[in-house]
């Protein structure tokens, strides 16, 4: 098992680029991770990484070994999943990611309940509004809002979510409430956007009488955290485009007001995505079933004001 542990550390270092990140991911210290890489290099008789101050880059030997090592670990995971399916006792670790706001509201609170139901399954949850590379970072399940374009992934739709444009009453009093979507263009209004490396939402697509239409909106600042956007809107700093369930409590208590309700944003798909092979893993299927039912129920409760 020690040799397999060393291989697993090596694979995560390649995928994450440094010892610290790999150590955090595997719940070991950077020193332990470093020792395991050294043991592996000693066993193989070659250097696996070129070391720089910021990143470890695989050598030619390391690149070749990574390809085979990855296949070995995947084969072991598939074999364990097959045994779990036969025994009816799924066990192991699931790596899950979700956007910050959605993750806090819907996913995170369900992890302890899932573990209570399936105590032999560990869940490692990562919340980020960045576009996480599922394959590179070894993610088993990613909960996402938006279009899924990666053909190497499978998708399980959970719910189509209504979107709304909202702003604080004091912003609308100061800047005026837009009546037509065209009023959002230019510098007439501050439209606050979610932006990060790889983000595609640099325009707002609204449902108009002529069909979906894209509007290139602008604002004085943006962020990679959806909850920060909501906070700015609540403080009267601009207009935001959000799934209704995320801002419904603020609409209900009149801290935010829906605008352009006759030309709302196009709905957004809430879905779980995962690598093709993962659906064969019973613990992944159990998590998908559990979270799909739970998230649908919670979203309906949020929209109903419960």
Automatic annotation (TrEMBL):
InterPro entries: LysR-type_TF_proteobact-type, LysR_HTH_N, LysR_subst-bd, WH-like_DNA-bd_sf, WH_DNA-bd_sf
Keywords tagged on the record: DNA-binding, Transcription, Transcription regulation
Any one biological process term the GO annotation gives: DNA-templated transcription
PROSITE patterns: HTH_LYSR
GO MF, any single term: sequence-specific DNA binding
SUPFAM superfamilies: Periplasmic binding protein-like II, Winged helix' DNA-binding domain
Pfam family, one: HTH_1
Record bears the keyword Transcription: yes
Superkingdom assignment: Bacteria
Domain HTH lysR-type: 1-59
Entry similarity comment: Belongs to the LysR transcriptional regulatory family.
Protein's name according to its UniProt entry: DNA-binding transcriptional LysR family regulator
Species per Swiss-Prot/TrEMBL record: Mesorhizobium sangaii
